[in-house]
C-alpha cells in the first residue's frame, strides 16, 4: 500500500503538571497555510494562555520538508522541538499539534518542559484515530486492440481507481493511479508495449 497515515479527526487532551494546565490539540491539515491558520485561531481564541507551542508536518512524513515548530516564548528547544520529534516518530503526516499552557506558578525546568510538551503530544497520539492517505494522478492513453490483454494484466499490479475504457479505432484507457507509482508504471508499460502507446495530455 502506498501513501501515508494521516489523522482521521481532531482531538485534544488535557494534563495538569505542577499546577500548570497543558492542553494538546491535534488536527489534520493539508497545507502549511492551514496549519498556520489553526495556530492563529488558537492564539486569538485563547489569548489569555501563557504559551501556544506548536509543531506540524505537512505531506508524507518519510519524505516531506514541510515541517515547522515553535517554542512560543518557552526556553529554546523545550517545547516545539520535542513536539516535532514525537510527530516525526509517529509516522503520521498532514498533522499539527498545538500545546496550550496556562502557567500555574511553579517552574518545571528545561527537562520538565521537554517532558510535558513531548508527553502531551504522545498522549494525544495514543487516542488518535488515523487513516491511510493516497494521492492519485490521472493517466490517459490510447492502445491497439492487440495490446489490451497485456495492458489489463499490467493494471492489476498497481493501485488504481476509476478505470475507464473507450472502444473506437483504438482503445482509450484512463484511470487514477497512486502518484508514487506513476513513474514506474509509465516505464513498465512502455517496455511491455514496446513504446507503441499514445499518451493523452490532459
Automatic annotation (TrEMBL):
UniProt domain Impact N-terminal: residue ranges: 18-124
InterPro entries: EFG_III/V, Impact, Impact_N, Impact_N_sf, Impact_YigZ-like, Ribosomal_Su5_D2-typ_SF, UPF0029_Impact_C
Domain UPF0029: 143-196
PANTHER family registered for this protein in UniProt: IMPACT FAMILY MEMBER YIGZ, IMPACT-RELATED
Family from the record: Belongs to the IMPACT family.
Protein name: YigZ family protein
Organism: Aliikangiella maris
